[in-house]
Amino acid sequence: MKIPSTALHHILNARGLDIATLADRSNVSARKIRSAMDKGGDLEEEDIISIADELAVPIEALFTSENLPLFPAVDFRSATPKVTKFQKGTLEAISFVERLSSTFSDLKLDYRLDRSLAAVKTNYTEAQAIELAREWRKKWGISDDDQLDFQDANKLYVSLRGFIESLGIIVMHRSFETDEAAGLYAHISDGPHIVVINTTKSSKARKLFTLAHEFCHVLLREEGASNPSILTNRVERFCNKFAAYLLAPTRVIKAALKRFRYTVSADDDFIRLFAKKLGISQEALVLRLVEEGMLTPADYNRWRSKFNGVTPPGDTGDGGGGRGDPLQTKRTAYGSALLHLLGEARRTGQLDEIDIFRLCGLKPKYQNQLFGAI
């Protein structure tokens, strides 16, 4: 089989890959790929399947005469954010978003953003990030006492996610099977605004910070994939500052110290326990304490050096184990906003149960229960 060069070049550009990288990942030689594109050479069926798999596109995308509405995901880990190479798991998450966006674009459903979500114009200063966080914490409606009563990242996460979804944003969970990106934000064509949180090696506290960080990307309309632990450009620094002050403003930190009668120190036990009380990750807490002048940059460096460049224990998973409620697991993975749209599409006859299963993997046996609960 021959591959039209125009189609493959379009996909490679959107995926941030070149033929050499594709050849390495697909185990199909660059010579064979180029020959199939430029000289009329043939590829075996297994070669085609492998190439499409590594590009995270359906096989027919390689042969279409029209460019598909792919999402050229900007890599915000770069000093100059641009489309770049992501690993296969991240590309598959992007492909999933593309599939949802394309489907919803063709349906008559209301997924408009709340009017309050106009794009924010900023000079990316710290003061503007802090003020934006103050404004949106007020709109969120979470009180300081509520947060300190929670003493639980999961409860705080559920509250923030529910608020964000109420604004018309789809928030989903998906394992990227790599921790290169903690999350992504995309708005493709006239589809819905979608945030995907990577569940790989991530505690609820880290998911919470990522969610707040990606919400700032929505406010800025800065689409792409990011990792809040890698700050090399002004967009990521701004989003991190926003997330830190949205989740742990100064007054909450001071109120928590008073309520729980803690004295600030760089001690591991204090950091672990106080982070849990606030419902945020240890890394976020220590950085906020440095910003508040309660710890020094040297304290942060000494604390961070204990983990040899890896995520501190307690920030990599949510603990627990065993088999949970499958319905609750699916509610968490898909989110209320997406389940509402899928349920509405099925009720209005725009999608049937098999369409939905093919679209997102939600089995028919769960659909009645999930859609009926919305």
TrEMBL record:
PANTHER family: ANTITOXIN HIGA1, BLL0069 PROTEIN. Residues 306-327 are annotated as: Disordered. It comes from Rhizobium leguminosarum. It comes from the Bacteria. Residues 165-289 form the IrrE N-terminal-like domain. It holds the Pfam family Peptidase_M78. This is ImmA/IrrE family metallo-endopeptidase. Keywords: Plasmid.
